[in-house]
Specification:
253 residues; mainly beta; Jelly Rolls; 2 domains; eight-stranded antiparallel β-sheet; five-stranded antiparallel β-sheet; 33% strand; globular; binds magnesium ion
Length: 253
Amino acid sequence: MRTWLGNVCGCVVVLWGVASPLTAEEWVSGKVWEEPPVVTPGQNGAPPSDAIVLFDGKDMSQWEGGENWIVENGYAISHGGGISSKQKFGDCQVHLEFAAPEKVEGSGQGRGNSGLYMMGRYEIQILDSYENPTYFDGQCGAIYKQHPPLVNASRKPGEWQTYDVLFTAPRFDESGNLVKPAYVTVIHNGVVVQNHFEIEGASAWEKPPQYTPHGEKEPIYLQFHGNPVRFRNIWVRELRELGCQEGEAKAAH
Ligand code: MG
């Protein structure tokens, strides 16, 4: 009897679950959104149709200081100093590929060191972290001296690796006060190593992170740290929120 009642109750619950959407009115937000633009995705890491290509394997003309780097075989080798993108970016998505030198030299921070600096000051560490111990918040995928990568997803020296970065720029008011910090998500070789991390300020080796006011858009900087780190396929997508107005409720299709 108890079993039978249980079955009846279960049946009633199921019937309610099915019946309720049929009688309810659809809820609509009332927001009138701008239509999302159409973007053609790239194949296998190639830039999507709306990307700004900063290095396509041919030349470093998109970079201040790029003439110092060595371009060969479709990649660029860091050399003679850091480089800054001529174009400036705020909120953006960055894709780049890098490879630590195949011939292992040095150790710790001296091995395959470079860095991707968002807005020229917030460093996502690039390092050969394959079986190369160093301080955790300085290894590959770290927000330098702020937060270690969640995992070590490094490939072997000489192998190509990917960074896909989602970056939200900090906001300052007119007096230069920080009103919203920067956030960053980093995917290293397809693995999340930073998940919407709240950046604490500009990265420095000799002092704690600190915010100082800067422009809404700033260059991307790639570090030269004395090691011949290779780069290829660098592109950026500027991220812009869709326009939205409050409007009359409109039924969805
Ligand atoms: Mg570095």
